[in-house]
Design brief:
Aminopeptidase; Alpha-Beta Plaits; 2 domains; eight-stranded mixed beta sheet; four-stranded antiparallel beta sheet; 9 helices
Length: 409
């Protein structure tokens, strides 16, 4: 039996554990920066696989790896590992599904598939550990599984990198479930996959007053309304129509009483671009619009950009390797080119700024007409997609460690 057949058998043996983990995580979600119980649960499960396991910063996140005692070759300080990344945090959304594994944490839900990503990476770890114990690996394979917190706040990848998860890592792989693709379909592209995302914070300083006498105030709420309209109208129109620019305000806070004009209003949003020069131009245009609105409304508007996530930029060689293995798992016709980048963002990009790697889209819809979108209260996946993700990533990890660097199967 060849190693891929043995791999498939090992995957089949751990499928029930992968599904059980996904159900556990979905039922017990934790938001970004609070993934303590999730991390502890993963730490315990991974420890049972006889792996080297450690916790992430402040008890959030987990890192697991093999000790690389394959045959007569032992690990040295310079041994290059292949990394596999899953994200573990949930969103502040109320789960409205009627399923046995529905969220038990009020107002918190795995609505972006991170429970599936985590379960898949666990499955890859279990598969690789099983193959190593049975001596079924075709060559020595050194790997590291990264279970990352705080992806939704775009801070977790940087924290894990700071904690040293990329030390001696030569390549990294990840996936993201995709409810716009049927189960068994894979979406891939080399180059940019997602947009550069900047977190935008606007503070409008005015002068409060009585709601009956707005002329005695400098109304920051009225100024905020003008600001949002101006940003939406003029910022995109300042760029070439062939260049994608998206500005969205997702949170606005100001005032405590319906009849009182407040002193200050705060707005939070995101700015998404694909090109570095367009990004710079867009940021300057936002500052210009804020100055103009502040002048005509007699308010002062502070503009700040906080967390910034670069574009996920998939390495061509790593993408080619995964593409080949995806075709082997699901068939050539089911591996599809992603025609253009998404305007979404992913802090997996932070790893790719340091080492080559790739992320692909894993179809997870049994019925496209009934599939619910990411970040919605009814989101769920076809769990048949889990085994596909495990098989592709496990193959990729092994081939990336091939002595000829995985350039041939």
């Amino acid at each position: 039996m060849d190693w891929k057949s043995q791999l498939d058998r090992a995957v089949d043996n751990c499928v029930s554990d992968v599904v059980a983990l996904r159900h556990h995580l979905h039922a017990h979600p934790e938001p970004s920066g609070e993934e303590l119980q999730t991390s502890l649960h993963l730490y315990q499960l991974l420890g049972k696989l006889e792996l080297e396991v450690r916790m992430g910063p402040d008890g959030c996140g987990v890192v697991a790896e093999n000790d690389f005692q394959n045959g007569d070759i032992a690990e040295s300080p310079d041994t290059a590992r292949v990394a596999l990344r899953g994200d573990i945090d949930a969103l502040r959304i109320q789960d409205e599904k009627e399923v046995s594994y529905a969220s038990t944490n009020q107002g918190i839900m795995h609505a972006c598939g991170h429970d599936a990503h985590t379960a898949i990476i666990y499955g890859v770890a279990a598969t690789l550990a099983s193959l190593e114990r049975s001596g079924s690996l075709p060559w020595p394979v050194a790997w590291r599984a990264i279970f990352q917190p705080s992806e939704e706040t775009a801070t977790g990848a940087a924290q894990m990198i700071e904690a040293g998860v990329l030390e001696n890592v030569s390549a990294i792989f990840a996936l993201h479930v995709d409810p716009t693709r049927r189960t068994g379909e894979i979406g891939m592209r080399s180059g940019p996959l997602t947009a550069h995302c900047d977190s935008l914070h606007l503070t409008v300083h005015g002068q409060g007053g009585h709601g009956a006498r707005p002329h005695e105030s400098r109304d920051p709420i009225a100024a905020s309304a003008q600001l949002i309209n101006a940003l939406y109208q003029f910022v995109p129109r300042a760029s070439d129509s062939f260049e994608a620019v998206v500005v969205s305000i997702g949170q606005l806070r100001g005032g405590e009483n319906p009849n009182v004009i407040p002193d200050t209003v705060e707005l939070w949003g995101t700015v998404r671009t694909l090109d570095a020069s367009v990004r710079s131009h867009t940021i300057e245009k936002i500052r210009q619009v804020a100055r103009g609105v502040g002048e005509i409304t007699s308010t002062e508007i502070e503009v700040a950009f906080h967390v910034s996530i670069p574009s996920v930029y998939n390495d061509a060689d790593m993408t080619r390797l995964v593409w080949q293995e995806a075709e082997d798992v699901v068939g050539r016709d089911n591996v599809q080119l992603i025609a253009r980048p998404s305007m979404g963002s992913e802090d997996f990009a932070c790893y790719l700024e340091n080492i080559p790697g790739t992320m692909f889209r894993l179809g997870c819809a049994s019925d496209l007409a009934a599939a619910k979108a990411l970040h919605t209260s009814m989101f769920d996946i076809d769990e048949n997609a889990l085994v596909i993700g495990v098989r592709i990533l496990a193959r990729a990890a092994i081939l990336a460690c091939r002595p000829d660097n995985g350039q041939s199967a």
